[in-house]
Specification:
Keywords: Hydrolase, Nuclease, Signal. It comes from Hymenoscyphus albidus. One of its GO terms (molecular function) is RNA nuclease activity. The chain has a single domain, classed as Microbial ribonucleases (Nuclear Transport Factor 2, Chain: A), CATH 3.10.450. The radius of gyration is 20 Å and the shape is globular. The protein has a 5-stranded antiparallel β-sheet. The chain has a two-stranded antiparallel ribbon with strand order 1-2. With 156 residues, it is an alpha+beta fold. The protein is built from 2 helices and 7 strands, in the order αββαβββββ.
């Protein structure tokens, strides 16, 4: 009986210790329907909005490592830092690419990337075409959802 009780206790302790611990970089979306997802919070002339990390990653995959001609991805140079990103994202001479991501998460296909109706872009390493550095947004957004003006980093 003692052995059986010890086994039950051991299993319970092991399951508690194996439970995932909260990641300090994660934050809950303000939209409670989304639950606990990693989001970038952006702010522009229309207001504040969230871009889920899954959407950003899908946009990086669609953009790929090859710079476009009259379509995204485009080379992106910046002076601001992506504090939560891979260290290479913040190197002075490291070329980055940008690709559009929609505010509702729907994918911008390459064929339509010449004129995307979204102010939001993902920034990622040209070096490998897969490393997400961050999400950025135009500071101005018109009534059709197109962005203009400077780009500002969204907060993770």
């Amino acid at each position: 009986m003692l052995f059986k009780n010890m086994m039950v206790f051991t299993v319970l302790v092991a399951s508690v210790l194996a439970s995932p611990t909260p990641d300090p970089k994660r934050k809950k979306s303000k939209n409670k329907k989304k639950g606990d997802v990693i989001v970038y919070t952006c702010d522009n002339s229309v207001g504040e909005f969230d871009i889920e990390q899954e959407w950003a990653t899908a946009a990086v995959t669609e953009g790929g490592p090859v710079e476009g001609v009259n379509v995204f991805p485009f080379i992106f140079t910046t002076t601001y830092q992506f504090p939560e990103a891979d260290a290479r994202c913040n190197e002075k001479d490291q070329p980055l690419l940008t690709y559009p991501v929609r505010k509702d998460g729907s994918l911008v296909l390459k064929a339509e990337s010449a004129d995307p109706t979204t102010p939001v872009r993902v920034a990622y390493l040209k070096l490998d075409g897969t490393t997400l550095c961050g999400v950025i947004s135009h500071v101005n957004e018109d009534e059709n959802g197109r962005g203009s003006g400077e780009l500002a980093p969204c907060q993770l």
